[in-house]
Amino acid sequence: MSWIDSSRRTFAEVFSLRDNLYQDYQAFARVFTDKGLLDEQLMRLCQQRCEQLHRSGHAVAGLSEDLIQALPQWYNSTLFSPLDKAALQPVSYTHLTLPTNREV
Questions:
Q1: Helix/strand/coil (H/E/C) assignment for every residue in the chain
Q2: Would you kindly state where each structural domain of the chain is located, as residue ranges?
Q3: From 81's CA, which of 27, 65, 71, 72 has a CA 20 to 30 Å away?
Q4: Of the ranges 25-34, 52-61, 93-102, which one carries the lowest mean pLDDT score?
Q5: Main-chain phi, psi angles of 65, to 5 degrees
Q6: How many C-beta atoms lie closer than 10 Å to residue 45's C-beta?
Q7: Which conformational region is residue 46 in: left (phi greater than 0), alpha (psi within -120 to 50 degrees), or beta?
């Protein structure tokens, strides 16, 4: 079950759930690419993985078909660098929000 309306199929449609959220995301993402903090190809990989997880069927521009096809099995594929794999590694939201022993 997801809080995301199942009629929202693309990355942009999911972000349209809140006014200006997609524009805010784009501005946030541009900071990383404009300042050279994160490779643009890596951003595309992460966006494509989100598209796949939400089953949108949308292909992100700028990625080869080989990468798109290999993405569901990224952890076993030699097409992805260690940095790619680290960025694609799922992170638990709960893990990010639970207090540590020091904070309790």
A1: CCCCCCCCCCHHHHHCCCCCHHHHHHHHHHHHHHCCCCCHHHHHHHHHHHHHHCCCCCCCCCCCHHHHHHHHHHHHCCCCCHHHHHHHCCCCHHHHHCCCCCCC
A2: 11-97
A3: 27
A4: 93-102
A5: -60, -35
A6: 23
A7: alpha
